[in-house]
Every structure is written in structure tokens, then in C-alpha cells.
Amino acid sequence: MASAAITTMSISLVYAQTGLGAKSKPVGLNFSSPKSFKSFSGLKAASSIEIESETSFLGKESNAALQASFVPNIKPRQRFPNQLQPRASTYKVAILGAAGGIGQPLALLIKMSPLVSDLHLYDIANVKGVAADLSHCNTPSQVLDFTGPSELANCLKGMDVVVIPAGVPRKPGMTRDDLFNINANIVKTLVEAVADNCPDAFIHIISNPVNSTVPIAVEVLKQKGVYDPKKLFGVTTLDVVRANTFVAEKKNLKLIDVDVPVVGGHAGITILPLLSKTRPSVTFTDAEVEELTVRIQNGGTEVVEAKAGAGSATLSMAYAAARFVESSLRALDGDGDVYECCFVQSELTELPFFASRVKLGKKGVEAVLSADLQGLTEYEAKALEALKPELKASIEKGVAFVQKQAAEAASV
Q: What pTM value is reported for the model?
């Protein structure tokens, strides 16, 4: 656990629009601080002048925010003269596949965010119990459950962010390609429903193989006439999380300070950690680069084998997905300093989709950053060229899947 640090914050009113053209009214608090909330901070509200802050799984300052968000044994009138409360939650999030191994812990982590007002959980079975369990957690968001195709539309209406972890997990000896035929149909069906019911939502694709399921989602959205490349994301955050963790362990660095960009795709050799771009700057031997790169690329297999048939990387994936959801919510909320690596439509290479660092804003991807791909080492440059044919094939496989189904439907 990182050592505690004292953070002093100044308070100012936060105003929110109650509707188009409506008069603004104070709804909460804003804080200026020398240590701004620039990292993944799942609990952002605060109401204390001086607080102790420790690093937690939610990132810098989040423990402090948690302490400040819940002030026990103080009546509302005693807190502030104008009865000001911590900032109101405002965004609606749906998880499709919420009863699964990733969906359940992901739902719990998202339930903890004060930026979420409504959390909708969908699955084909066993989701009512998950929703009932989560609804007992004393965080502000309201949890509702939706079971089966007949309830999918109601689950999605009005959502700001839709997260799709639905599908079957990998088992020992199973490659991501083995998942394709099952998960491709699942993703296609769910994205069709998103297109029909909340076409303006941010869509986060977790279902593997992401290198193919994102192109599937794109083709579906194009057919529906609602494709916005700025709002569709393949969640590759787990590759970054693993890279940061493994590098920090190898080099005995403070984990919260480590940032390793990971580019390419989200399977095997298409996962390319750019260790030369690690922050803080650190030197690796050739052997360390090879060892770390292979371990990051095979992180999912490491977990599958360790669980010996009992599951795949569900908990770390849920954590990584929650981090990306929180970043999206912060961007929607007006934070102008949100950056994440993700798999998106891109012009950085000759490939139509590519994972890289992007800047997120209220309308989705504001910029796809090219700086990380400049000045690569010889090892990284060769690895980048080596991954392109495999990534290209996976992308084309996803596109062909949807186009084939559309042709078959048209011929009937």
C-alpha cells in the first residue's frame, strides 16, 4: 500500500443544466487541487477540506474521495450552510452479459462509481439474483435486471454507455479463434439491439476475439445506418494493466507511476507493448524485452492454465473494463484529460482498425495519438510489421461474417 499523503482542496459550486435552455442550478461541489484527478479514479466526489489519500485499486485519490463522499453521523444541515451535497450521478450504463464471470465483478465495480445513476444488467438467465445482490450496496446508482431477448430493448433505452462482455470464455487449449463462431453471433445480435434502442451510446466490446468482434459491430452499425467510429471501442485495457503490472514488478517501480502503451490488437502477437515508451523512463535488456513482451501477450493463457479449466481471466478483465468505463464516464462528464489505449477505427497504419492511445471526450474519440509509434526500437518495429498480417486476417474475418449473413438473408 502506498504511503498516505495529505491533499488540500478548495471548494466551489458545480452547476448543471436541468434541460435544454433551462436555468442552471447548483447540484454539488467541485474541487481544485494541486493533485488533479488525471488517473482512473472511480470515486470522484469529495466534500472534505483536508483528507488523507492512499492509492487504491481505483487509482490516485480515490480512497480520499470515498472518505469524503460519505460523512457519517453528521446531519445534512451541519455539513455546509447551503446543504450542498456531493456531485450528483448522471450517467446510465448497461452491461450485456452481466451474470457471467466478467459481468458480475464488472457490475460491482461500476456500481461503485458516483458518476452512474442507473445500472442495467442483462443476460439470458440468472441475472435477477445478481441485480438483487448488487442493489443492497449503498451506492447511489439504481440497479435493474433484464432477462432474455424480450427484455433487451427496455434494458438499452436511454443508455449512455453499453458494455458487452457476453459470450463463452476460453478454456484450456482453446484459442480466441475457437471462440469466434459462438461469440460472433452473440455480439451481432446484441449490437443490433444497441443500434435500434440507443444508437448514440458509447459501445464497449469485450467479447473475444476483439480483433474480429469490433469489425462485426462496425458492419452491423453500418447496416443500421448509425455507425459512429468515435463511439465504438474494443476494450484492450487489460493488456495495458498487465504491462504496467509486470513492468513494475520486474523493475521494482511504484505501480501507480507506471504507464506502458500497448498497441496493435488484442490476441497473441497482435498485442505489442511498447516498452521503450514506458513512463517513467526505464532501461530494459534485450532479454527483459523479450520476456516481458511474451508474458504480456500470453497473460490470458497464463490465467486459463492456472485456473485449470475453471475459468479464464475474469477478475482482471472486469477491473480493466471498469477502468475503461470510468474513463468514458469522466470524458462524458467533461474531463478534458482522459487518455486510454483501445482498439478503434484508425488511420495510424494501413489496417482499418488498430489499438493505440486515444484521447476521449464527450463525443467519444477526440484524437488517435500517433506519438507512441514514432521512434520505435528495432525489436518493436519488427514486431509491429509481424503482427499486421494476423490482425488483418482477424479483421477481415469479422467483416466477412456479417456480410455473408446479410447476403444469405437477402437471398431467402
A: 0.81
